Amino acid sequence: MQVPFRLLNALRLHTEIGLVAAMAVAMATFSATPLVLAPLATEFAVSTGTAALFSAAQLGSFVVGSWTAGRVVDPSRRVFVIGLVTLSAANVVAAFVGSFVVLVVTRSVSGLALGVLTWLAYSQVFGDDERTGDITTVGPLTAVVSAPIIGVLLELGDVRAVFLVLAGVSLVPLVWVPSIVVPDRTPTGRNRAVRAALVVIAALTIATLGGSAVFVFMGAIAADRYGMSALVISLAFSANALVSIPTARFRGRRRFAGGYFALTGVCAVISTQADQSAVLWIVLCVWGGAFWMAVPGSYTLLAERSRFPTERAGDAQAAMAFGRALGPLVAGALVAGGEYAALGWVCGGLLVVAGALLVAVELVVPPIRAEA
Question: Quick check: is 204 in a domain?
Fold first, then answer.
């Protein structure tokens, strides 16, 4: 788990290492979710649908933390330290609890800390494309390394060890506590979004709901339907992240971003219908590349169809966080009987619908001149 942090020292970053390292911790925590879901269901003797509640709790609290932190506290080194220590403590408790309910509570605390840390990091890089790129790229880079390590831990048969490792890793960014700049908090008025922008934001919500619903269960699907071991599953997720890196850093024009979301919808359906492990590897790689073509392209589309792009960017982040948190709850209901076919068709359909909406806006609505 130290490998991502050594890589950070080797990279030519424009952002303080502490902030990037904290985002690496966040990605390692979230990338563990689809891998530990099935083992946790076995460990606590609950269904995979019920086990998804821990992910919903973590993501829900993440939304609360990222939305409210800026209204409650100013960015500071103290908030940075408290966030990491709280995250580590939540992971330690999760490693030793005997009740699934208490586990859900620990993941809720973890999500809150992750939300605050994410808000803090983005508050320091907002408006700087190069520094924002550092924060964005560290996600796939971390997942490439962390997924196989988590897979090895699970292969050794101890899901609780994953939380202990995450607890230790959560303290590593304290080596590089960054200097924090307090941004201007002068209140500004809000402006109403035009209809095209609202359609794009709605499409992004639908896409993240459908995508997260399937992806959080991908580890369970790989184990139950394809018979893959924990280590092989983790390597497949690492391949997904590896493919994401060049598409995330792509600097060209991303036309018809909705088409890439629709492609992930097709992947969602195939992943729940096929029975050859090679197919799942291909699906995960295509999904990774398509997703990271779709999201930045959708942001560009939103900016070009908005009078106030900065405000709409915040709205899109909030809407996508809501969709991401709701996804595991919807998925849990769809797989209540242990079958994944309905999950694939429903959530794959949502991704296709979201993609179609985005393509329609791009084709029908001309770019709007921004006012701010």
Answer: yes
Looking up residue 153, the CATH number of its domain turns out to be 1.20.1250.20
Q: 128-146: per-residue pLDDT in tens? A: 556 666 666 777 788 888 8
State the Cα–Cα distance between residues 219 and 1, nearest whole angstrom: 20
Domain assignment of residue 331, yes or no: yes
- C-alpha 74/C-alpha 63 separation (Å) is 18
Q: Are 89 and 37 in contact (CB under 8 A)?
A: no
Distance (Å, rounded) from C-alpha 155 to C-alpha 11? 31
**Cβ pair 40, 160 in contact under 8 A:** no
Q: Which domain holds residue 123?
A: 1-179
Confidence of residue 248 (pLDDT cuts 50, 70, 90): confident
- The pair of structure tokens assigned to 185 is 């908090």
Which residue in 194, 221, 192, 173 sits closest to 77, CA to CA?
173
User: Could you tell me which of 149, 126, 352, 324 has the C-alpha nearest to residue 234?
Assistant: 149
Q: Answer yes or no: are the C-beta atoms of 84 and 140 closer than 8 Å.
A: no
pTM: 0.78
CA 121 to chain centre: 15
Rg, C-alpha atoms of the chain: 20
pLDDT tens digit sequence for 261-293: 999 999 999 999 998 899 999 999 999 999 988
Contact call for residues 178 and 77 (beta carbons, < 8 A): yes
Same-domain check for residues 173 and 246: no
pLDDT (tens digit per residue) in 139-191: 778 888 888 889 888 888 788 999 999 999 999 999 988 888 776 555 555 56
185 assigned to some structural domain = no
Domain closes at, from 179, 212, 239:
179
How far, in Å, are 34, 137, 252 from residue 143 at the CA level? Answer: 12, 10, 24
pLDDT tier at 367, thresholds 50, 70, 90:
confident
End position of a domain, from candidates 130, 145, 179: 179
Q: Are 55 and 317 in contact (CB under 8 A)?
A: no
Helical segments of 76-189, H only:
77-96, 100-125, 129-155, 159-169
Q: Say if residues 334 and 350 touch (Cβ distance below 8 Å).
A: no
